[in-house]
Amino acid sequence: MVLVNKAPIGWRRLRPRRLVFTDIDGSMVSYDGRVGGSAYYARLLRLLGFLVIPVTAKTVEEVVALRNRLGLDGDPFIAVVEAGGAVYASPGFLTRPTSYDHALGLDYIEVGEPLERLEPLLEEIASTPCSEPLYRLTKAPPRIAERMTGLEGFQAELARRRRFIEVYWSPSRSCMERAAQRAEELGLTVRYGRLLHVGKGYGKARAVELLLEEPLLHGTPTVGVGDTQLDEDLLESVDTAVIIPQTDGRLLARPRRTDYYVAPEPAPEGWVHVARLLALGSL
């Protein structure tokens, strides 16, 4: 069953005024799921000619399920998912798609290696000697998947449907550190925060660079919005970088640039503030 409508005839002639590449959790939406005014301002930005593109660690199924709630329900559908593991878009948008997802009705580009090709290496990481269990999200029992993701029921199930990035978690930080070290020894790409993201060849910045090669987007000014270390490569690759602080005011994202803008509040209020500035032409 196709879950995303095809883009309307003529949409390819509409060149965006500006591209807003935004993280979702902790940036556009609070970690406890509050959207606040983000959906309203996402729709307002679209009316003003901005194109808001999620760049998230979520799966494509999660983004599809969330797009109405986040105000991202306008065509075309474009999203960077699984921390830059793949780019999904409405049919006809991508000039060189890798393949087509028949269930979702979306074209996509593989940025990272599919997990099925990495399975022996991923299992070797899962076998890292630990004092506590080390879980893989794609194979975790429902209860553990909910604990890893902070989601419940069907939402946690959507988060498990990963194709490009495996996520590991253990109650033991030393266990996760050993697993991260083993993944690096095996030549895999590792992002380490509260969870351990492991894949090969993935990256938010790399996925954004591929998108910017598309004729409709090439040369368009870019904004990047993020809140953690997972967003640093994205923030380093855009024209205007925005950091959303944590609820305690800390900045977890530290890109290798000094000209970033720091929102005055955490998500979602900080994202709303940034959207207002963009709408007014003040950022």
TrEMBL record:
Q: Which InterPro entries match?
A: HAD-like_sf, HAD_sf
Q: What is this protein called?
A: Putative mannosyl-3-phosphoglycerate phosphatase
